[in-house]
Amino acid sequence: MNPADPEDRTVAAAEYVLGTLSEADRESFLTQMAGDRELQAEVGYWQDRLLGLAARIEPVEPSDGVWHRIDAALQFQAGSRPAGIAREYTGQATPSKTSWWNRLGFWRGLSGLAVAASLLLASLLVLQQQEEPQARYVAVLQSPDRLAGWIVQAADREPVKLIPLGDPGPIPQDRSWQFWTKGKDAAAPTSLGLLPAGGATEIPRSRLPDLGDEQLFEITLEPAAGSPTGRPTGPVLFLGRARRA
Amino acid sequence: MADVAPNSFDYEGLLAACARGERGALKTLYDREARWLMGVAMRIVRNHALAEEILQEAFLQIWKAAATFDAARGSARGWIYTVVRHRALQEIRRTGHEVSFDTEDLENLSDDRQAPDSEAPGIGTAELENCLQQLEPKKRACIMHAFVEGYTHEQIASKLDTPLGTVKSWVRRGLLSLKECLA
CB distance A60–B48 less than 8 Å? Predict the structure, then answer.
């Protein structure tokens, strides 16, 4: 897509909605859309217009079990708010009041990877409780489709650890994965640097301006040399809020 | 909710209630849309159990992401359908699941079919139908295959036995004509 060409923009938005963009085109479209409100509105236009095509499709009754399983997953977080994952730093996401254990319960219903995350987290929490008392925080970073991908461990007097849950796959060519944090009341995110391919990373505690409950951590897709603006410019790959452990 | 006219069904309000953590709002959305969304997912993944799994995951995703919905970027109903469709597409693209082409597919989507149900999805559907009729049949077929069956450009080219570049051009020109007609 040439972002300056109106025809290219409307076709790309329609094809994004249809789902006919190639993986590479979809990725660059999402990158462009993240900071382009007109393009977001164009996607909304096509979403609404093409919706009428769904009326031609014969409805199919799902079995009762589907709602029961959805309801069971919601029950785990009874009385709590949804976590509200945000694709960008809009400040719109509702801060979650969910307790750790409620969220762990919820993840068990989601996927094998999420279950693995729960188990790893539980063991991390137990291990940490045996050490000296120091404010400790853990964040599980989830993708926009809610798959847990990374764990962040942080404490006042220790380096911040970023640990992948499983193989994070290759970093796309000519791109980088950039790690960011933003305190609960901070005005802007702070870069914690580019991630090395594959492995776990440690970041000196001094790189963080602040550390506290509900602090946001995220990984975005950026140009190879990192964000040119000092702020996230690419799509959010993984995002999560820190909880005091 | 069966006695509520489609236009007065408050999708935006229900999504906002989901964002506030009101589970009843998600149930109301589900009761209203599940069979339509199930139909959409079924056409793409062609497997009842898998379509139910996608419906389930998509509703949990809708619940979790409700707070990020922005009415300035289109309707809540359109957003919900995109969540379900993209979840289904992700599944078949991830597994490389090749869907079998059924020659009856397009006939089932006959051009003059009117949705019999007042709750059928669509905004300005009559206008859309009218504009689809004005498209060249091959361009219309490309758009229908992509939306309804979830086909890629390559799959459409193979099914229509047409070069890939031609299909890409039909999709592009078809979409531009559609937008011009709808304006």
Answer: yes
